[in-house]
Structure formats: C-alpha cells, structure tokens
Amino acid sequence: AVADIGVTGLAVMGRNLARNLARHSYTVALHNRTHARTVSLVEEHGDDGTFVPSERLEDFVASLKRPRTVIIMVKAGAATDAVIDELVPLLEEGDIVVDAGNAHFPDTIRREEALRAQGLHFVGTGVSGGEEGALNGPSIMPGGTRESYATLGPMLEDISAKVDGVPCCTYVGPGGAGHFVKMVHNGIEYADMQLIAEAYDLLRQGLGASAAEIGDIFAEWNTGDLESFLIEITADVLHHVDAATGSAFVDVVLDQAEQKGTGRWTVQNGLDLGVPITGIAEATFARALSGSVPQREAARGTLPAHTAAWEVKDRDVFVEDVRRALYASKVVAYSQGFDQIAAASAEYGWDIDRGAMARIWRGGCIIRARFLNRITEAYERDAGLPLLLADPYFTDAVADGLQSWRRIVAGAAQNGVPTPAFSSSLAYYDGVRAERLPAALIQAQRDFFGAHTYRRVDSGGVFHTEWSGDRSETQES
Ligand code: 2AM
Questions:
Q1: Which of 57, 157, 228, 399 has a C-alpha 20 to 30 A away from that of 428?
Q2: What share of residues in the chain are helix, strand, coil (percent, to 5)?
Q3: How far is CA 455 from CA 432, 434, 460, 472, 474, in A?
C-alpha cells in the first residue's frame, strides 16, 4: 500500500481533485467504474504527480495506506449510495470515506450515522469553485468526525485555495454540517446574483445605459467594498459582445433562469427552521418567475404599469444610490444566511464557527469577496453575535447607505422595475429593527378564530379572550 489518498469517480470534478492532490505531492490512488477514464487521466496528466490506477475497486482499496482515505466524487443521490455500498465491505475500522459530491445534507447525516455504526468515518464535504477550483484550489467545507480531520484535514487544506496564506478549508462540524454549509453558501450565491441582476436592471432602466456602459460601472464598483468574483464576472459578461449578431451578449440570452436545486433546498430548510432567509427565497422565486412562461405571456402587454419613463436627474447620484442599495441588501442576505447556519448548528448540534465559514469562503468559491473578511472580524468580536447587521461595522455600513436604499426601492416601485431582493431586504431591515411589529394583531386574530392564545406585554403567562362570549380574559395554566 503506497497511496496517501484515493479518488473514485473520475469525471471532471474527481479528475481535477485527483490532479490537485497529485500536484501537492500526494500519491493518489485512482478508480472509476469505467476504467477508460482512469487510463486517460494517467495518460493525459501523469506528469502532475504520482498516480496509482486500479481497474478493480479491491485493488484500489488495497493500494491505500491506513487509515485509508477515499474520496467519492460521483453524482449525488443513488450513485453515491451505490459506491458507498461497494466500498464499505472492503474497508476497515478507522478508514475515512469522503463524499465530495453535492449531497443534500440529510443524506449526509444518514450516511454518516450508518458508517459510524460500522466503525468508519464518513465525511460529507462541500467543495466549491467548480472545475477550475477543483484543480487549482477550491473552498472546502468538510463535516464528519473531528478525528477524521486529523488525517484528512491537512491534505484538504493543502489543495484548497489560499487567501493571505490561509487555507480556504477548515473543519465545519459533525454529521451533515459540511454539506449544510455548502448548501447555504449556494443559497447566498443565489441572493448575491439576484441582487447584482437587479442592480443591473435598475441601471439599465434608470439610465437607459447600454450593457457595456453598465459593465464599466460594475468594473468600477469592483475596486471598492463590493469587490468580489461575482461583480468581476458581471463586468466581464456585460462587456462581452455576441459574435453572431454583434449585440451585447446579455441581450441575446433568453431571460429564463434555471437552477439545479441548492437554492430550493436552502429555502426549504429556512422554512423548516423558521429562519427568514428572504433574500435567498426571493432570489429562488425570481428564477422561478422568470421561467413561468405561460404566466409571463398572459401578463406581458396585458397588465398595465401606470408608470412614466424613469427620469433620473443626476446620473452619478443614481449610480451611487444603486451601489449603496446593493451593498446594504447584500449585507442583509448574508446576515440571514449566517442566521440560518446558527439555527441549524443549534438544531442539529453542530457548533459551527460562523467566522471560520466566512474565512474559508474568501477564496476558491463563487461568493469569494473582500467583504467576507468583515464578517470574520464581526464574529471574532462576538462569536455569539445574534445578528450580523447588529455588528457595529455592518450597522454603520448599512446606515451610510440607508437613504440611498430607500430612494432606490421607492423609485423601483414607482417606475415598475421589479426588485424583489432589494425590496424584501429593506423590508427585512425595517422589520427586524422595528420597536413593535403588527405581529401583535396576528396573535389577536389567531386567538379570535382559533383560540390559539397570546402573551401580554405587561405580564407573563399565556392568555385567551372569550371572543364569542363576554370577552373576558382567562389565563391558561
Ligand atoms: P462512469 O465514468 O463509469 O460513468 C460522474 O457521473 C461520475 O460518477 C463518473 O465517474 C461515473 O462513472 C460515476 N458514476 C455514476 N454513477 C455511478 C455508479 N452507480 N457507480 C459508480 N460510479 C458511478
């Protein structure tokens, strides 16, 4: 046995992870259901390092040093279970099985429990950064036992992206914590993308600017607080010209956004935990609306707007307003996502360090951004921070842009520009900071029609009013 680690499943992600490991001087055992893929990897990239290819899974396992560490990189779902079932009988106590695919975290919880019962470590890990990241340094979010991290962690940290020399990989927490955090990362990514898309639309409709002009604005924004991979690629996309038509590329792309499901999972979990992740939810529904073809056809040209053309008086003020509104909305979306991580951590017993999550998202992944340093700093100031927005840095940053934010959301409403994520983020901001909410009325209504009871502001206990009788109040025991 000579290999430090093995990879089974050598489609592009597995292939690139294996190459990345080999380039970091690990001896990498290789296996794939269809052996031809294994052969071609060694043929094409053998000079990346030392590979130990095996056609049979038994030989693959036998080529691994103990504790054996096997990364599975196959399609999420049934294929993952099939590979685990084949692999497990060949392993021994203390071996580590890593699922680096895009598993839904409840599956990871289930698999981890099953393998733990057999004396094996099961690590569900998020890997973000796509093909390019897998090869050159992804953000890696491993769950499972802390014990397994002692063996696995250093290898994953080696191949992860680095920011200021710090690896974008850390132990996330037990069970399904790694895949959970990856899921929320993707949810936040949905929100971030939707916010950028709304900013683009506001600039387009407000200024009547061309795609390329807006690309210039995004490129400028990328030199400040908003600096991020997503802003950078937005500028790039907006400058791109379609070769076939000579039009701005963005103008020839069909405006129906698709999704693979991680946004939906995030929103479903937000509902399960009762965490208002409105930014992510609006972003997910905005994609759904864009794809609601019959509804859009029925509405287009039929539903009136009753708006006049948007007259922006001062271009520079407007651009700055949009920028500040975008930043504030982004803080809300991230604040909500980190609330979801905290809620899940408490619910499932994961003890996730939110500051560390922001730190490992600074590089390698899609939401990588300078801004994440600020989040890490906020949780360093207060690890138990109940609301990211309430950290002094973020409170001030959002307060600075508050007037801009209100002007933009009001202007969008007045001029008929759909900004679900900007608007709902502002509504969240005003809701969460409210002295009193009309939830009091909701409680009274619930007690009226369903005797659901309510609590009072002036005394403890639970009360019910006899609405259909004499309206006397009784205290429930
Ligand atoms: P293949 O090359 O034999 O198709 C992405 O589909 C990767 O997952 C591929 O490496 C693929 O192997 C592998 N894969 C998909 N389903 C699988 C299964 N049920 N068992 C083993 N590998 C599987």
A1: 228
A2: 55, 10, 35
A3: 20, 19, 7, 15, 11
Say what the pTM is. Answer: 0.97
Helix (H) or strand (E) holding 36: helix 35-45
The annotation status of 24 as a binding-site residue, yes or no, is no
Burial of 464 (0-12, 13-18, 19+ CB in 10 A): middle
* Helix or strand (DSSP H, E) at 387: none
Judge contact between 192 and 335, C-beta under 8 A. Answer: no
Is this complex scored with an ipTM above 0.90?
yes
User: How many Cβ atoms from other residues are within 10 Å of residue 461's Cβ?
Assistant: 10
Active site residue ranges: 182, 189
Can you list the alpha helix ranges (DSSP code H) found in 168-292? 177-207, 211-221, 229-239, 249-252, 262-273, 278-290
Q: Report d(CA 133, CA 367) in Å as an integer.
A: 13
For the segment 391-406, what is each residue's pLDDT rounded down to a tens digit? 999 999 999 999 999 9
* Token representation of residue 3: 């290999």
What span, in angstroms and rounded, lies between the C-alpha atoms of 444 and 454? 7
